[in-house]
Amino acid sequence: MTRNTNTGEHAHDTRDALEQRVHDAFESIGPDEAATERMLNKVLASQATPAPAEDAARTASARAGAPVAPPAASKHTFEANGQQPTPRKRIAAWKIALPAAACLALVAGVGFLAAQTLDQNASNATVEATAPAGKQTTGEMDSYGYAPEAAANAADGFAAGESLSYSLPGEPLASFNTEEYTAIDEPGFVSTYTRPLSTLAADADTASYANLRRLINQGYGVDDVYDEWAYLDADDASAEEGEVAIDPYYAQSGAIPKGAIRIEEMLNYFRYDYDQPQGDDLFGTTVRVGDCPWNPDTKLLVMGFATAPEQRSNEAGRNLVFLIDVSGSMDQPNKLPLLQDAFAELTDQLTDADRISIVTYSGAEEVVLDGASGSDARQIQRAIDRLHADGSTNGEAGLKMAYELAEKHFIEGGVNRIIMASDGDLNVGMSSESALEDFVDQKRASGIYLSVLGFGDGNYKDNKMETIADHGNGNYHYIDCQEEAERVFGRNLSANLVPLANDVKLQVEFNPAHVKGYRLIGYENRSLADEDFRDDGKDAGEIGPDHQFTVAYEVVLADSALDVAHPDLKYGEGATGNPDSSDWLTCTMRYQPADGSGAREQSFAVDESNTAADPGDDWRFAASVIEFGMVMRDSQHKGTATFDTIDDLLRSIDLSDADRKDFQRLVRKAS
Amino acid sequence: MQQPAFDIVEVYRRQVGTVYRLCYARLGNAADAEDATQSVFTKLIEHAPVFNDHEHEKAWLIRCAINHCNDVFKSAAKSKSAELPDNLAEPSDEAASAREVLDAVLALPDPYKDCVYLHYYEGYKTDEIALMTDTNPSTVRNRLADARKLLKNALEA
To answer: Strands, DSSP E only, in A423-570?
Structure first.
């Protein structure tokens, strides 16, 4: 401004000239004639490429406005394919008849029922059938011989299981949104009279937030969230009408299923100012209680758990096996290339004592690197750079191979971990959730951890990825950009690689004398039976050093106007609690320290004294994240929460932390 | 394979400039812009939407291009362009002044680029841009004003 000596007219001229110059600059970009023809030829060539038979059938039917099977295959798994009926308020611009779709859905549904009962046997059979083939080991940098017949047989035996996941052989059509998520059934308020105990497995996963951020950055917002349950139910009704309206503008896009929004993973994405552990406790605990922002009749209890940064150095070394999906579906800039960048982050931090192996898998699996020393960064980097994507995906065979390598290079007293990177599209062989679960469950006993990194979009199988990580004593992250890769591999490396406590469980006992009801926020798929709390054979969450996780409850005090329904008990009384104790609740943690020193418990009580008129920025931020999750999911418990109230909450706190600032941006973009 | 209700070659010839320039503005080089343009038209073939008119068609492609470019991450785009042959069209030397302006435009944040391109080159109004980019008209106006300041500063420096 100070150096601008132009008069008003000049300024006006400059503006016009600027506009003209920008216009000319765009004009100069081209494309020139050669480029135009070159692109056209490639576009036409892609049109001519025949799709795999099933894909083609599915594609063609979608175009013809003929049936596309809706994801009625399972009440638990569903698929966000491109043909979601969008809410009726949108103008019906193209019509899709559904009767035949209903038939297909029925077949798929029956397939699923059969699969559920067969899964257990089938998966065991699969493991047996392929085990001998995987045993042959060869020298360093050699590719493993693997009998494809065994895999094929296993796949055949698994045909029933395949039908439920809709995974089609061959390369998926990238543009069809076939992402899969596990549907979440949100529990409501629970009466302390009948159920004073609430038990859950700790979870420090963050994938849901990063994935949601990716979807929102792609332009999806709150209007694109749909309820998979409602969708499945509504399906019958629309089948009778014979057609369902789809707006072509949105038909290209899948939307955000409610199952993709997991509030605990959103909460856990952020760092809070939590107390460090005291004495020989592994977890520091922080409790904050305040009036629930979205419900005048409840309190919001936010409990923060934090582990100390890693103390001991890793002289024992780390045995890391990277299991990298190089199937055709990974051949997108936000998948394999991003993954390669992510690994570059990691190789910088390796030392002599570390052993690095890389197994790739697509149609066949291959050992690219067999226990290379961590100091040989160049060899590792070269191996990573050489990866290219092509072929179908056999995640199971790759997974078996990875476990074999991890066992071969096992470092006693060190970190032994498989890091699986994939878009989760395991479309050959053992790819049903339960079969994968069984396999990973069996392997967990070997002391080898399994982490999962999710990549990409369009065909993302959130359900499978989360299953694998949860069962493999691992954590699960979604990498949507270079920054997230740096976060997971750089800043949080030790937390994500080194175990500190295993099977971390929480049990909250409410005192019915002061609390008449509660609602656990998030953690829907992490709840445990109360009886399993002290059963150390039951798997639960794994937490590393410098990790944090947050558990929040909506608490209904005894004098609240909110009525928490409970059934009348015919034979005796329910829990009435202890009015002499001022405790509202006691939270007990149980975990197995990774050093093998045996199960440990620590607990703390929460009472009136923990409440505050202003419970602080962390509490308000957590409340805003919860509100966002609830508003996005249109939760029946969202109360007065709206995008405006979230914005108000966020405005009331210091957002100098970049992640929190970005959350504010995301909220505004999604609204 | 079901044929779309339009002639892809015609649509391509009609809209390739728009899609390509938008992708170029976003991705910053010809190689990536070509890749992205192909992907956008491939998506058009795959989805075969029904368009009311050419404007609708153009709006769809613009939105699709923006979405696609959002998916293409800078790091990934960089590593990819390194593998491509170097005989791809970059703007000619004669257009040195245009290059200077272009560099200034390319240095803008992504959402600004979209607005600048759609407004300055394609002549869309702010409320039309708001529709296409899923934002508010006021946001678009602010972005255009900010972009103008940034461009002026860059070019006067």
So the answer is: 449-455, 476-479, 501-510, 515-521, 541-543, 548-557
What is the extent of the structural domain holding B105? Answer: 92-157
Number of neighbours of residue A291 by Cβ within 10 angstroms: 14
B142/chain A closest Cα distance in angstroms: 16
- Please state, in angstroms and rounded to a whole number, the distance separating the CA atoms of residues A263 and A269: 10
Q: Do B75 and A337 touch (CB under 8 A)?
A: yes
List the structure tokens of A125. 């059979």
Whether residue A137 sits in one domain with residue A104:
yes
Co-location of A298 and A199 in the same domain? yes
Residue in the structure block whose two tokens are 């999604």: A670
B103 and B115 assigned to the same domain? yes
Length of chain B: 157
Side chain identity at residue A579, one-letter code: P
Positions of chain A with pLDDT lower than 70, given as ranges:
1-15, 48-185, 226-255, 311-315, 363, 390-396, 424-434, 457-461, 490-496
* CATH code where residue B80 lies: 1.10.1740
Task: Quote the Cα angle for A203-A204-A210, to 5°.
Answer: 120
- Out of A219, A252, A338, the one facing B73 most closely (by C-beta) is A338
pLDDT at site A189: 92
Interchain contact A337–B (C-beta under 8 A): yes
Residues from chain A contacting residue B76 (CB–CB below 8 Å): 333-334, 337-338, 341
DSSP letter for each residue of A228-265? HHHHHHHHHHHHHHTEEEE-HHHHTS--EEGGG--HHH
Domain membership flag for residue A145: yes
- For residue A483, give the chain B residue with the closest CA: B75
Backbone angles phi, psi at B80, to 5 degrees: -75, -40
For residue A14, the chain B residues in CB contact (below 8 A) are 152
What pLDDT, on the 0 to 100 scale, is given for residue B131?
A: 81
The 10s digit of each residue's pLDDT in A128-161 is 333 333 333 333 333 333 333 333 333 333 333 2
- Same-domain check for residues B69 and B138: no
SS3 B24: helix
Q: Enumerate the residues of chain B whose CB falls inside 8 A of the CB of residue A22.
A: 101, 105, 116, 120-121, 151
* Residues in B touching A332 (Cβ below 8 Å): 71
Verify that B8 and B73 share a domain, yes or no.
Answer: yes
Determine how β-strand A256-257 pairs with β-strand A225-226.
parallel
The verdict on B16 and B76 lying in the same domain is yes
Query: Distance from CA of residue B148 to its chain's centroid?
Result: 18
B55 and B100 in a single domain? The answer is no
Q: What is the CATH number of the domain that holds B134?
A: 1.10.10.10
Question: What's the structural domain count of chain A?
Answer: 4
Bridge partners of residue A427, in order along the sequence? none
Over residues A355-379, the pLDDT tens digits come to 889 888 776 778 888 888 888 877 8
**Surface of A (212-271) touching B: CB under 8 A:** 217-219, 221, 248-249, 251-253
